[in-house]
């Protein structure tokens, strides 16, 4: 089984770096390996003899740049190196790396990028401490304006390693070589868009050290949850595959529930029922075949249906309406202690009432699936949850606060569990931004939970499968297509 890909924050990486040094690997050796990885990547991007311009910063990122410059010069490239700040200010391993550089050092402001065949951006890495200004910012802007290929060392300078935010200005790289593990900025937007293709170079820090310092943040990929995917046994019957219940909105708002229901069925929930308000029974009946239908008159109706213990997973929210009745249905569902996915109106109905959600979901597997706007509405008045700059941190705090898995949607969907685990999703396509796409996602997650997949893994798998389906379809995608693409994705995953 492939191990899940660890993602380390800059501070975790720094600790792992120190642990590696304490375990007997000299820091300069790590830097040499890092610089060599950069040089090897540069060789793939520029042919021998080409002009390579290295922009080096005042810290260890700059040190990697000096090593790469030396190796590339030895290998016949015409290398020019510019340094931000005086060479005498370089410290530690970076100072040692600079001593190995036999060429001249140009002040960064005099460095010309327009004649380069390749630019190596070694200005700042994980140590970026504030917004770029002055010469540093000008250098970044000039690099971008040159429109030459850029190889970023560790991360594009100006991108915040923790959050992926642009701090004043940031390099737009074509390729990034990072070391030991990706950092959040390689997956979170807008950082991900600044990185180009990312390569992780092994610089000899053993995985147990990385696991000890990181270990809670992952790239969302099958390695994280494939082993949890349900595989029906030879003699399985449908009730062993779970029964998902999806609440429908009123007569003119029924499509969302059917999208979720169909997705739950496609991902393998043995049975799926739409719980419909009496006035919408006709319209729902006209559009359902394999999916069953039950009349459900508000919270009391839901309470009655849930007396049947076979309904083991529930979707509430899509097109349910923003009002106290929806809140009451959530309360009924929470008391019934079934696996629960709350989305859209079920979240917005709690606008300004975040305190009612404190610890509300700690007794049964629950997944909240807000997009950014819903998240902001839901936690209005809670700066502790809304203010952190990091999307991961916001989602983590919301998960700890509510006791639910929180799935904060977007091009960089983040999934967090109350125990602190978090995953960042990176597959998918902007074509997923289409009406009803989120409803389908709810159904996928509930359908997995109905089959016994734990909430965090169900949310991670649901997001990935949803995105993969969207990516496979591409242009012209509408929400109705998504569930139909799930079988192909599942087949490949279960192979
Ligand atoms: N971890 C590992 O395993 C390994 C890590 N390695 C490498 O080390 C890198 C991290 O090195 P790092 O900690 O020295 O930080 P780095 O990114 O060079 O920047 C710090 C310097 O920039 C300065 N500075 C900051 N912000 C600024 C601003 N806005 N404007 C202007 N200046 C600013 C800051 O100065 P100060 O804040 O003190 O003024 C300081 O001088 C990492 O990304 C990787 O490439 C590899 O060698 C191998 C193993
Ligand atoms: N640019 C994008 N790249 C990848 N996925 C996206 C992008 N924009 C939206 N998505 C995904 O599409 C889905 C949209 O859900 P949502 O906003 O709830 O839509 P709706 O309410 O219309 O169903 C989410 O899973 C989200 O992560
Ligand atoms: K850099």
What attributes does this structure have?
495 residues, Rossmann fold, UDP-N-acetylmuramoyl-L-alanine:D-glutamate ligase, 2 domains, 10-stranded mixed β-sheet, 19 helices, 15% strand, binds ligand NPW, binds adenosine-5'-diphosphate, binds potassium ion
Topology, pairings included?
Elements: H1 10-22, H2 27-45, E1 51-56, H3 60-74, E2 78-83, H4 92-99, E3 106-107, E4 118-122, H5 134-146, E5 150-153, E6 175-179, H6 191-195, E7 197-201, H7 207-213, E8 217-219, H8 222-225, E9 243-247, H9 255-266, E10 271-276, H10 281-287, E11 292-295, H11 298-305, E12 313-316, H12 324-336, E13 339-342, H13 344-348, E14 366-368, H14 372-378, H15 383-386, H16 391-402, E15 405-408, E16 414-416, E17 422-424, H17 437-450, H18 455-473, H19 479-494
Parallel strand pairs: 1-2, 1-4, 2-3, 4-5, 5-6, 6-7, 8-17, 9-10, 9-12, 10-11, 12-13, 13-14, 14-15
Antiparallel strand pairs: 15-16, 16-17
Keywords: ATP-binding, Isomerase, Lyase, Metal-binding, Multifunctional enzyme, NAD, NADP, Nucleotide-binding, Potassium
Binding site for K(+): 61, 121, 157
Domain YjeF C-terminal: 221-493
Oligomer: single chain
Cα radius of gyration in angstroms: 26 Å
* Main β-sheet description: 10 strands, mixed
CATH class of the largest domain, anyone?
A: Alpha Beta
Number of strands: 17
Average pLDDT, all residues = 97
Hetero groups bound? ligand NPW, adenosine-5'-diphosphate, potassium ion
Structural class: alpha/beta
Query: What proportion of the residues is helical, as a percent range?
Result: 40-55%
Separate helix tally? 19
Overall geometry comes to elongated
- Any idea what the CATH architecture of the largest domain is? 3-Layer(aba) Sandwich
- So, the CATH homologous superfamily of the largest domain? Ribokinase
Low-confidence stretches: none
CATH topology description of the largest domain: UDP-N-acetylmuramoyl-L-alanine:D-glutamate ligase
Hey, roughly how much beta strand do the residues contain?
Answer: 5-15%
- Termini separation comes to 13 Å
Strand order of the largest sheet: 8-17-16-15-14-13-12-9-10-11
Instruction: Indicate how many domains the architecture comprises.
Output: 2
